[in-house]
Amino acid sequence: MSEPKIKVTNLTAAYGDFVIMRELNFEIQRAEVFVIMGGSGCGKSTLLKYLTGLKTPAPGKGSIYYDGKNFNTASANNRRKLMQRFGVLFQGGALWSSMTLAENVSLPLEEFTDLRPREIREVVSFKLSLVGLKGFEDFYPSDISGGMRKRAGLARAMALDPDVLFFDEPTAGLDPLSAKRLDDLILELRNSLGTTIVVVTHELASIFAIADNALFLDATSRRQLAVGNPLELREHSEFENVRTFLNRGASSFKAD
Question: What angle do CA 221, 43, 22 make, to 5 degrees?
Answer without folding.
Answer: 50
